[in-house]
Amino acid sequence: MGKTILMVDDSASVRQMVGMTLKQAGYTVVEACDGREALQKATASRVDAVITDLNMPGMDGLSFIRQYRATPASNGVPIVFLTTESDEGLKAQAKQAGATGWMVKPFKPDQLLAVMRKVAGA
Amino acid sequence: MSELDPADVFRQEANELIETLEQALLDLEKRPDDRELVGLAFRALHTLKGSGAMFGFTAVSEFIHEFETAFDRVRKGEAAADRRLIAAALEARDHVAHLIEDPDCDPKRGEAILAALKVAVSGEAAPAATSAPNAPAAGIDATSQAQPAGAGWHVRFRLPADALTLGTNPLLLLDELRGLGPCEVVALAGEVPTLDRIEPQQCYLAWDVTLRADVAKDAVDDVFLFVRDDMELSIEPLAADAADVPGAPAALPAMAESPKPAAPAPAAEPQTAQRPAAKAAAGGTERGAGAKVERNATLRVPAERLDELMDRVGELVIAQARLSQLAETIHDASLINVAEEIERLTASLRDTTMGTRMVPIGSLFGRFRRLVHDLSEDLGKPISFVTEGEDTELDKTVIEQLADPLVHLIRNSVDHGLENPDRRAEAGKPATGTLRLSASHRGAEVAIAVSDDGAGLNAERIRRRAEEAGLLAAGQAISEGELNRMIFQPGFSTAAQVTALSGRGVGMDVVKKTIDGLRGSIDVDTLPGKGTTVTLRLPLTLAIIDGLLVRVGDDRYTIPLAAVEECLELPTGVDKDARGRSFLNLRGELVPFLKLRGLFQTEGEPDPYQKVVVVSSDSMRVGLVVDQIIGNNQTVIKQLSRLHSGLKTFSGATILGDGTVALILDVMHLVGFGQKLEERRRAETLGRAA
Amino acid sequence: MHALTIRLQDEMFALEATHVREILDPVPITRVPNAGSFVGGLINVRGSVVPLADLRVSFGMDRPPQDADTRIVVMEISLDGEPMVAGILADKVYDVTDIEAASIEDAPKVGMRWPAEYVRGIGRRDDDFVIIPDMQQIFGARTNLAAENG
Question: Where would I find the Response regulatory domain in this sequence (chain A) (predicted)?
Fold first, then answer.
């Protein structure tokens, strides 16, 4: 049984791309389309890592990271956020909120896998 | 569910985003200072750009990047969202849609649009400083120093205290270093406190790694990409092996491998991420917070599957009715229990299934805003477009079919109804015309109205045109309503000049055809000089409705329950009114009634105590006299064949629990039919009296 | 012609067998008020509501009540070029047989008891004449459609 990754993005196409890539690499993928759903899924059962977009309707990525980090369930769970530009200000905010790492969109499947191995292991 | 082609998923999603963008832009034109709208438009662009690049739509992504850069000035408050900018942005939106369909199209057009957009946001071309949309993934600092050609690197690092809690796993970092080449790893445990002061979730260890591999410094640096900012890290070439790294005690007992990662404590206290804000950027704006649009989790399901589901539920309802009937006959208590349970479940399954097919009409209304906007520009008629009742829900198939008729009605209103500003000024009206699109529930119907405050229909011209077109005999008497409805006849057009938009004599008959097909009706109200309202009335044509089953003679009929107001006994003597009237005194109000036995030429003797079912249709109430009221039933609507499509008194048929067919009464038409009979009888009575 | 032969009163009719879906024993018929007597009823055929046509009306025949031989032939009809399903009342259903094309003659223009436009041809089976009705004409005839009364 592979590690469980929670994938949070409001874009179905990104979720699908990430989901397919991770599944092929042996991860189990749980999807959520906004922060609210992500928070519910991340706290309902243990996940091994979280990939989240920041820009989302409903609850955005930063609020999600903050609220998730406020729960014991997030202890030791790496959170990688997705961002479109390498915006240092945003990166700092996300890290401040408790993110572990980031990825710049667009990314290729092997880049995604490299980052996942880095934070969650194979 | 089968995996879809990601590019198709992107296209579908892109269409929605483009739609969102368009709506936001159109709203912005009205409320240029609404930050949420700007945020919404920006977010749509942003997502489009990101996923576009990921799915190989490079041209789209690059174009949007420029679009976004220009639009960013609006977001930053440096440019106003004026009409010119919105127009340019809408063009850009169209180009995005075009690029998604045809990524290889001529880039010149895109450049021209961008140029216009840049002019619109700044008055002069914005500096094309940010023209690199595809920043490298996993941001890497440009710290490429000269590579010392050496045997490797001496790496020392200490993680921030909360690194473990925040998901950084030092074991993985060490693994990654090992991936670069052979490593000697020494854990530095000098900072580990005594047991009574130890915090199990904190990371006290530091590591000293000797990496013997000829790799670039960047590669080593990248291992620490995510933690670099907050940690102590030194990477020195092996040749210049520095014994003293500040903060790292030299010569420590060599504890190779396994720095014990703190196991996540189940009862750990909530951890709020607080750390010295060494690099926290003060100026960072909270992105994403701008677009606070609520959206529930949704699931995409092919529409046919919903149709199939509805069919199955329909069959289930019929089977359930049979079960209930059987249970009644057999009269076994436990069987009746089960039958009732199934009946309840079926009803709720039915409601849920139908609920999934109900779509708020707002989704359709939204599409017309662009149409009105464009028409307004093209014809030079300023228009205020008002929509009401967007959350009125209708079956999705009905909504889909309404799109075309509404386009025609709106075009017609703008083209022929609303006057140009000069004419409006002459008539003492505000220069901006109002076009109103509204939807509301009325009993078992939905009314959708398109109204304008324009010139109104010209009765004389309609008559002349209808006579020319041979739709009306010269001088033929015709009611006002019927005359107005002439505009929906095929081949009818009053436009003095044919515009590209309407007046070609096609279109309005499409409206009638579609509405007829939906078993609806069209009303036209017009006041010369004041405006015109076209109202489409549609039955809530759902696959299954709640019905009231009644008996007339030996036949059973179903009346849509939503139209039923009350049931009562027909007072004796009321049908023997000497003046030939068929009116019922309902709490002081006179309500006409129709004897279904007469209407349906039912044979045999009526029951001694006749019942009246009072139904309403568009504020008209009518009593339907029946022999017996049997009770409520779930009614699966089956369309009548074309052999019976002329019978407007029935909206369909259904199958009852015993397997027989019962006709469903079309309340709207029955009321009309009754009215006519009533009038005819009155005329006959008058004729006899004369 | 591959034909299902049925009896309407004392005449034998041949229906295109490939268009026949099934033959039913009499089922409850729901009267459709104001629909006229040609398609004055509806029946339930496996969960579908199907109009029931009485060809005897088109041919001006007597319409005695149903008896033990009465059947309903469910078949596909083409109406204005679009297919639909309808039931046909039969006083009796015989069998499926081949009627040689060579034996089929045009309906005589005169001297026939039946409306000529409803007859596609007269076939011969053993010593009997078989009427081949023109279903398209019969069902397409305006008089046979339920009139609008709204």
Answer: 4-120
Domain coordinates of chain C in residue numbers? 2-149
B175 to chain A: which residues are within 8 Å by CB?
121
B396-412 and B508-517 helices cross at what angle (nearest 10)?
Answer: 160
Is B422 in the same domain as B468? Answer: yes
Shortest CB distance from A103 goes to which of B138, B230, B266? B138
Asked if B606 and B528 count as a contact pair (C-beta separation under 8 A), the reply is: no
Q: Are residues B349 and B461 in the same domain?
A: no
- Tokens 């790694």 locate to B209
Q: Do A77 and B61 touch (CB under 8 A)?
A: no
As a whole number of Å, the end-to-end CA separation of chain A is 11
Residue B660: which of C32, C33, C44 has the nearest Cβ? C44
Domain C2-149 annotated CATH 2.40.50.180: yes
Write the DSSP symbol of residue B250. S
Alpha carbons A99 and B24: distance in angstroms, whole number? 31
The whole-model pTM stands at 0.47
Of the partner residues B644, B658, B660, the one whose CB lies closest to the CB of residue C35:
B644
Q: Helix or strand or coil: residue B114? A: helix
From chain B residues 548-587, the ones with a CB under 8 A of any chain C CB are: 555
Question: Does residue A106 have a cis bond before it (omega within 30 degrees)?
Answer: yes
* Cα-based angle B234, B236, B237 (whole degrees, multiple of 5): 160
Query: Which partners does chain B have (≥3 C-beta pairs < 8 Å)?
Result: A, C
In this predicted structure, the answer to whether residue B583 has a pLDDT above a threshold of 60 is yes
pLDDT at site B448 = 92
User: Where residue B379 sits, what CATH number does that domain have?
Assistant: 3.30.565.10
Residues in CB range of A37: below 8 A, 6 or more apart: A8, A58, B297
Q: Is the pLDDT of residue B256 over 50?
A: no
CATH code, domain with A38 = 3.40.50.2300
Split into its structural domains, chain A has a count of 1
Nearest C-alpha of chain B: how many angstroms from C85?
9
Which DSSP string do the residues of C83-116 spell out, in sequence order? EEEEEEEESEEEEEEE--GGG-BPPPSSS-SS-G
Is the CB of C81 inside 8 Å of chain B's CB atoms?
A: no
Distances in Å between the Cα of B365 and the Cα atoms of B6, B338, B362, B370 are 30, 45, 5, 10
How far apart (Å, rounded) are the C-alpha atoms in residues C143 and C146? Answer: 8
List, in order, residues 6 or more apart from B188 with CB less than 8 Å away: B156, B158, B205, B206, B207, B208, B248, B249, B252
Q: What phi and psi values does residue B660 have, to the nearest 5 degrees?
A: -85, 165
Q: How far apart are CA B84 and CA C58, in angstroms?
A: 70
* Residues C24-74: tens digit of each pLDDT: 998 899 999 988 889 999 998 877 899 999 999 999 899 999 899 999 999
Answer positive or negative: Cα dihedral of B354, B356, B360, B363. negative
Radius of gyration of chain C (CA): 15
- Separate counts of helices (H) and strands (E) for chain A: 5, 5
pLDDT bracket for residue B147 (50, 70, 90): very low
Q: Above 60 in pLDDT, residue B667?
A: yes
B84 C-beta neighbours (distance < 10 Å), count = 14
Q: CB distance C149–B318 less than 8 Å?
A: no
Residues B288, B310: one domain?
no
Q: What does the alpha-carbon distance between residue B271 and residue A70 come to, in Å, rounded to a whole number?
A: 5
B residues 624-683 lying closer than 8 A (beta carbon) to C = 638, 640-650, 653-655, 658-663, 669, 672-673
**Chain B environment of C34 (Cβ under 8 Å):** 600-601, 647, 649
DSSP for B177-189 reads HHHHS-EEEEEE-
CA-based nearest distance B368→chain C, Å:
33
Range of the domain at B407: 361-539
